[in-house]
Amino acid sequence: MTQPQSAANWRDYYELCKPNVVLLMLLTSVIGMFMSVPGMVPWNALIFGNLGIALCAAAAAAINHLVDSRIDLEMARTHNRPIAQGRVTNRNAGIFAAIIGSAGMAILLILVNPLTAWLTLASLLGYAVVYTLYLKRATPQNIVIGGIAGAAPPLLGWTAVTNEIHGHALLLVLIIFIWTPPHFWALAIHRRDDYAKVDIPMLPVTHGIAYTKLHTLLYTILLFVVTLLPFATGMSGSLYLLGAVCLGAGFLYWSIVLLRGNNPKAPMATFKYSIIYLMALFMIMLLDHYLLPAMTIFEVEL
């Protein structure tokens, strides 16, 4: 039961949007846009595409807050969220999610293209409905199956520019899809008791911490291999390959530290590194996309 507190302010509604998560999604969306073209992304796709994607992602986040308000109140990590503490009512949260979600869809439909709009809607429903309402409470593979919704932003950015689904865009989705389980399981290990208390069947709760650590390492190995595919397919060049190998080695290091169990700070250290890893990987991919062709031309002219 939520606890009635002071009236909501704009910060509470901002928190409902999970801004840090949305910003990471937007980073991958923007880079998906730039990876889809050799030159500059059209300004309307860059501005309106990301605005629409951001509003729909924020709406999905608000619905997640709404659905999880009961368990949020019982978990240390989430007990101070606006709905859990009663600062935002369920009704107002629902209205807020509907308004920003509808606005995001209208922007994508009218100012971008229908393909991006419908893919974004599918991603929103995948996270807010399929994952939050069903998978999260139904199976320890919740984050694996539900991760496809959170992996969509680079595809959405790509289609906002090109109006087509390209194999390279799907490769970007695959990278985030494989990245999601080791990223989240590290946090779930750290917060295992919280999830057990509210009967959420996260992998450390149902199969134990040792099992989860092993599978975190296995997924990290798989991620290392998958992140080599942009180079193997000719999508990216040697700068990206160097970055992917170095960043992947760092992720493997933390997964092994986590597995060995000698460092009590390893779960959160692995979780934090995974965020830096994804941001850096996509940024290096973008640099490779634009700098290597320029370097090649420069060398030919010399």
From TrEMBL:
Its EC number is 2.5.1.141. Its main location: membrane. GO terms for molecular function: protoheme IX farnesyltransferase activity. Keywords: Cell membrane, Heme biosynthesis, Membrane, Transferase, Transmembrane, Transmembrane helix. Pathway: Porphyrin-containing compound metabolism; heme O biosynthesis; heme O from protoheme: step 1/1. It is found in: Cell membrane. CDD domains: PT_UbiA_Cox10. PROSITE patterns: UBIA. The chain crosses the membrane at residues 21-41, 47-67, 88-111, 117-135, 142-161, 167-189, 210-232, 238-259, 271-292. It is a multi-pass membrane protein. It catalyses: heme b + (2E,6E)-farnesyl diphosphate + H2O = Fe(II)-heme o + diphosphate. Converts heme B (protoheme IX) to heme O by substitution of the vinyl group on carbon 2 of heme B porphyrin ring with a hydroxyethyl farnesyl side group. Carbon 2 of the heme B porphyrin ring is defined according to the Fischer nomenclature. Belongs to the UbiA prenyltransferase family. Protoheme IX farnesyltransferase subfamily. This is Protoheme IX farnesyltransferase. It comes from Zhongshania guokunii.
